[in-house]
Amino acid sequence: MNSVAYQLFPGQGPEGLRAAPRPVPRPGPTQLVVRVRAASFNRRDLMLMDGTYPLPATPGVVPLSDGVGEVIAVGDGVTRVAVGDRVTATYYLHWLRGPQRLAHVLDQYGANHDGWLAEHIVLEEDSVVIVPDHLTDAEAASLTCAGVVAWKTLADPAPVLPGETVLTVGTGSVALFAVRFARLRGARVLSITSSAEKAKRLREIGADEVIDRTELPDWEQAVLDRTDGAGADHVVEAVGPPTLAKSVAASAFNARITLIGAFPADGPAGDPFLGRYLSIRRIAVGSRADFEDMNRAITAHRLRPVVDRVFPFEAAVDAYRCFREGDPFGKVVIERG
Known about the structure:
The protein has helices at 43-50, 102-105, 137-140, 143-155, 173-184, 196-204, 219-226, 241-249, 288-301, 316-325; strands spanning 2-8, 17-23, 31-40, 66-74, 86-89, 120-124, 128-130, 165-169, 188-193, 209-212, 232-237, 251-260, 279-283, 307-312, 331-335.
């Protein structure tokens, strides 16, 4: 019996994504096989396609780190899940908890281990996470990267407290998750966006105030004005170096700025900190424990990820183009019928 998987050949654009048959996989002793129901995109998937991600994609790898499916076979040593469970997996194969180490970074689904853009996927038992029951497949397939990194941003090492001000910069999926999680913690949320339509939708998912940077290009001053000159206590910087200086200028003393995602290391010229005392950190998704903590909160509060568009499995190339060119608000998802 054959299965179908998309293989990625970096540096060739959409033409480097090719569907191919292969045998239905069998699990090793500590592995499981999952029948994929849905998978979703992150910015790193475009970088892997373009050949600009820090960890190069293995030519022919099955892409996408985010997905969900049903366990159909387990190895003899597997004890954490059973056939019939609906599961997803962590971004990194072996980061279970605690600080991230270099060894964790070197094994990633969708980069150098086959990911979710297939009819079947083989997962390591250590990486498996049960998904909240109330989520649809498209929603459950949206958690692994953007959801976990937004959760870790606001929960660790110093959790956002009620009454603090959280500033989200950008309207990618990380920022949208961060709006929800910040409100969950009782914070006031200010969001930066680029259109009136996105501003409306940000308010609908919980942002207290939205600043349209096309109308107020000096949005850092607008943040200061809306916080009586104090600035934001925590900045979720989901754009990166192009907006970092403005994020610093919009922050409070002893603020926490978290940079999200992979991007070139070159920072803005001059002193981007403007004399402020603050901490800036870069984080890379999170551990299995972070993922499970997030899922408990999602379940308790019946939260749902924002999904923009859903494509059929056969239209994977169109889904890539939509994610790259369509300016989505929320996740772009591929579902199998």
